[in-house]
């Protein structure tokens, strides 16, 4: 995430506030999980917030579904590509985590389904992990 630091005065004095100028979010799971719907919603929401948006998605060639991703790059300036390395990975399954963890910037955020994903110990040192049980 590209960010700049602002200073705001609060009741207790001044504290740093981070303002994010752009972020790349990759959503990885299976097509029947609504990956494209979630990504499309995120892109529309960002666009309505006067942000520049570029998206990229993969759709499996099988009728019954399969691994799928939707990547959204959101920026307050001109966005000319969907981006290379993700700032945030949202992983629904173990295969989603393992296939896409290498696409996350060092120090990035990995949000994963704690019922279906077991993070690799060596990856915990390079990325911020947050496990949340996703509803079925």
**Global Rg:** 16 Å
What does the overall shape look like? globular
Fraction of helical residues: 10-25%
Helix/strand/pairing class, anyone?
Answer: alpha/beta
Describe the structure.
By secondary structure, the chain is of the alpha/beta class. It has helices spanning 35-48, 94-100, 121-124; strands spanning 2-10, 13-30, 52-58, 67-75, 86-91, 104-113, 128-132. It has 3 helices and 7 strands. Strands 1, 2, 3, 4, 5, 6 and 7 form a 7-stranded mixed beta sheet that branches. The longest helix is centred in the N-terminal third of the chain and has 14 residues, at 35-48.
Summary keywords:
18% helix; 136 residues; 47% strand; 3 helices; 7 strands; seven-stranded mixed sheet; alpha/beta
How do the helices and strands line up, and which of them pair or pack?
Blueprint: E1 2-10, E2 13-30, H1 35-48, E3 52-58, E4 67-75, E5 86-91, H2 94-100, E6 104-113, H3 121-124, E7 128-132
Parallel strand pairs: 2-5, 5-6, 6-7
Antiparallel strand pairs: 1-2, 2-4, 3-4
């Amino acid at each position: 995430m590209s960010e700049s630091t602002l200073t705001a005065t609060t009741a207790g004095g001044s504290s740093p506030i981070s303002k994010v100028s752009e972020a790349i979010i990759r959503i990885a799971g299976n097509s029947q999980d609504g990956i494209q719907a979630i990504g499309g919603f995120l892109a529309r929401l960002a666009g309505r917030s006067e942000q520049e948006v570029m998206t990229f998605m993969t759709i499996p060639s099988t009728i019954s579904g399969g691994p799928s991703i939707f990547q959204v790059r959101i920026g307050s300036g001109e966005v000319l590509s969907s981006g290379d390395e993700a700032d945030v990975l949202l992983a629904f399954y173990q295969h989603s985590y393992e296939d896409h963890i290498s696409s996350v910037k060092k120090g990035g955020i990995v949000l994963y389904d704690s019922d279906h994903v077991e993070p690799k110990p060596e990856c915990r040192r390079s990325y911020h992990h947050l496990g949340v049980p996703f509803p079925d």
